[in-house]
Design brief:
mainly alpha, 4 helices, flat
């Protein structure tokens, strides 16, 4: 009985159970008639926007790179002894963050 609790077997049991439940749900679901209202975007009764909400991933990657540099740099400086090399690294870290902020 303990073999059921091993991750691969438990995953397969879950997969079969999910497939059965999904199939039953599709079988019992009400099939309505197609209309323009069903396939249109719902925007609380307002006209759907025609422009993109975000122009792309560039702003996200800039912020992600900022925090990655900041956190990894502080981790390295915090785990090193106070030496001239760590001060030079800290100055380089500050310059990299300023360059990233300046764009």
């Amino acid at each position: 009985m303990e073999i059921i609790l091993t991750p691969p077997i438990a995953f397969l049991i879950y997969l079969v159970l999910a497939a059965v439940l999904s199939g039953l749900g599709r079988m019992w679901a009400y099939r309505g008639e197609q209309s323009a209202e069903k396939v249109s975007t719902y925007a609380s009764g307002e006209e759907a926007p025609t422009h993109l909400a975000a122009p792309g991933y560039r702003p996200f990657f800039i912020v992600a790179l900022f925090f990655a540099i900041l956190h990894l740099g502080v981790l390295i400086v915090g785990s090193s002894a106070l030496a001239p090399a760590s001060i030079v690294f800290l100055v380089g870290l500050i310059l990299a963050l300023v360059a990233l902020i300046a764009g």
